[in-house]
Amino acid sequence: MDVILKLVRNIITIDGPSGVGKGTLAFLLAEKLDWHILDSGLLYRLVGYLSLKEKLETTREIVQFLNKSKIQLVTNLKEGICEIKLNKKILGKELRNENIASRASELAKKEEIRNAIIKIQRNAYDSEKGLIADGRDMGTIIFPEAALKVFLLASPEVRAERRANQLKEKGMSVIMHDLLEQIQQRDEEDINRKISPLKPADDAIVIDTSSLSIKEVEKKVMENFKKL
What angle is formed at CA 105 by the lines to CA 100 and CA 107, rounded to 5 degrees? Predict the structure, then answer.
C-alpha cells in the first residue's frame, strides 16, 4: 500500500547534477525567505576531510566518528557560503579542495557512509525555520515530504563552460575537452548508481537552466512556491 506523506511547506529541495546553479539558487531563496541551507555536498566533503586530514582510514572509523560528533550546518549569508561546525571547530575553506572532493566522491558510494549522512541531513530541518536542501537526492530520499521539489538541468556543454569560467577566475588553466568528459562521466555515475540515483522526484518541477539567468530560475521557483 502506498504511504501518503503529509507535505511540509517550509522545505524546498533543489536537486540536479553539478553546474546547474543549485548552490546559487539556494542562497537566493534563503535570502528571500530567511531560511537555512542544507548543502549536502559539503557534508560528503566533511567525510573526505575526515579520511584525509583526520586519518580515519576505514568506513567504520568514519561512521563512528560521525555518530559521536556534534555536527551543525551553518548558513553564512553574508559571505555567501555554507560551513560546518564540527564539535567546536568551524570548517569552510578547508573542505573546498579537489583532493577532498575526490575522496568524498569515492566514500559517498558506500552505503554505511550515506546512511550516517542521511541522519545528519534530516536533523538539519528545524520546523521553526524553513530549509533549502541542495543536493542530488534531497527530493527523492531525504525530504520526500517537501511540498516544493525542484530539479535543475543544463546541457553538459553549458555546465562545462560555467565550470571553466569558475576555474579561470581562480587563475587555473582549463582543458575544455577534459572538463566536459569529467562532467559526463560524473553524470553517468550519479544516474546509474544503485544507492540514491540522481533523478527528479515524481512531483518535482524540472527546470532547464541552459538558457536562463539565475534570476529567471529564482522567479520560476518563487512563482511555484507562492502557489502552495
Answer: 95
